[in-house]
Amino acid sequence: MDLLERNDTGGIAHLHMNAPERLNALSDEMLAALQAQIDALAEDRDTRVVILSGAGKAFCAGHDLKQMQAGRQAEDGGKAYFADLFARCARVMMGLQALPQPVIAQVHGIATAAGCQLVATCDMAVAAQGTRFGVNGVNIGLFCSTPMVALSRNIPRKRAFEMLTTGSFVEADEAERLGLVNRVVAPDALGSETRALAETVAAKLSAAVKIGKRAFYDQAQMPLDQAYAFTGEVMVENMLWRDTEEGISAFLEKRPPDWS
Ligand SMILES: C/C=C/C(=O)SCCNC(=O)CCNC(=O)[C@H](O)C(C)(C)COP(=O)(O)OP(=O)(O)OC[C@H]1O[C@@H](n2cnc3c(N)ncnc32)[C@H](O)[C@@H]1OP(=O)(O)O
After folding, report:
1. Residue closest to 13 by CA, chosen among 40, 3, 27, 1
2. What are the Cα distances from residue 167, in Å, to 160, 213, 229?
3. Residues 19 and 102 in one domain
4. 132 CB-near residues (< 8 Å, 6+ apart)
5. Contact residues of ligand 1, CB 6 A cut-off
6. pLDDT per residue as tens digits for the range 187-228
7. N or C: which end of the chain has fewer CB within 10 A?
8. What's residue 1's pLDDT?
9. Are residues 163 and 217 in the same domain?
10. In this structure, is residue 115 part of a structural domain?
11. What residue ranges of the chain have pLDDT lower than 70?
12. Is 182 helix (H, G, I), strand (E, B) or coil?
């Protein structure tokens, strides 16, 4: 059984973390497996949408605490290992955001610490009722500074700060109100609802979704005037495609588009 299973159907790549005995903790091996899939997906022209889920009773419980304790046995107390670990984790998170395809987290059970960071990093998320979200590193004396980057950019500042400093969990309904997840569904409908969202996006003109995803994050870094100038250029490029001409013609002629 692979640590990270991949199943491709209908232009949707489903990545399934499969280390339930450690609640899919982000071990060195799990980070490497995620990075390998990110590298492959970045070059994959057939995949339109990615789903990320976890096996067992939790989506992901953050960094692997057993490996972290082992890492500190090195002569330098683990300094080099930890620096490398957080750099590798950051590369995975930034890689997910930089993927051309939208990534949807399919979340159940618990998503905590770097696991909650994964949810915040994904472009969209669907959660099962009963899922709990936290950044509870502070409970073990480890402030979740790197998860803070994604969390503070995705939910209101004061609520992010409270989660980081109290280590307390947020229930699924509140996660939806905060915008950490798009929707909360019955546990037995989690797979089908996530798949339906993925299929809706996969049915759009993939090239448009892909330049749109890149522009979504790039423009967020810019002052207002630059953001309008930049997104205007993106739209000009998009308008010049034959498939966009076809999409507009199809609308005007009241027929489905026939994209290349
Ligand atoms: C900058 C970012 C930093 C980080 O990400 S640091 C990691 C921070 N993460 C945590 O502090 C979470 C630690 N885990 C927990 O607090 C609890 O778990 C949960 C609340 C998530 C779930 O509790 P429950 O449902 O009671 O499960 P269970 O019996 O504690 O866990 C099942 C098995 O999974 C192992 N496990 C859980 N989390 C981790 C982890 N993060 N790294 C490695 N192993 C983990 C346990 O030890 C245990 O294993 P066994 O059955 O052998 O006793």
Report:
1. 40
2. 10, 32, 41
3. yes
4. 109, 110, 111, 112, 169, 170, 171, 172
5. 22-23, 25, 61-66, 110, 112-114, 136-137, 140, 142, 144, 146-147
6. 999 999 999 999 999 999 999 999 999 999 999 999 999 999
7. N
8. 74
9. no
10. yes
11. none
12. coil
Question: Which amino acid appears at position 188 of this protein?
Answer: D
Whether residues 131 and 238 share a domain: the answer is: no
DSSP strand pairing (12-17 vs 132-134): unpaired
Q: Could you tell me if 126 and 162 lie in one domain? A: yes
Residues 188 and 231 in one domain: no
- Residue 63 has which token pair? 């960094």
Last residue of a domain, one of 163, 186, 202: 202
- Taking the centre of ligand 1 as the mean of its atom positions, its distance from the CA of residue 248, in whole angstroms, is 51
- Distances in whole angstroms, Cα of residue 233 to Cα of each of 4, 219, 227: 38, 11, 10
Q: Whose CA is nearest to atom 9 of ligand 1?
A: 62
What order do you get walking across the sheet with 132-134 strand by strand?
110-112, 132-134, 170-171
Inter-residue contact 71 to 37 (CB < 8 Å): no
> How many C-beta atoms lie closer than 10 Å to residue 94's C-beta?
14
User: For residue 43, how many other CB atoms are within 10 A of its CB?
Assistant: 8
If one counts the domains in the chain, the total is 2
Find out whether 90 and 114 touch, Cβ atoms under 8 Å: no
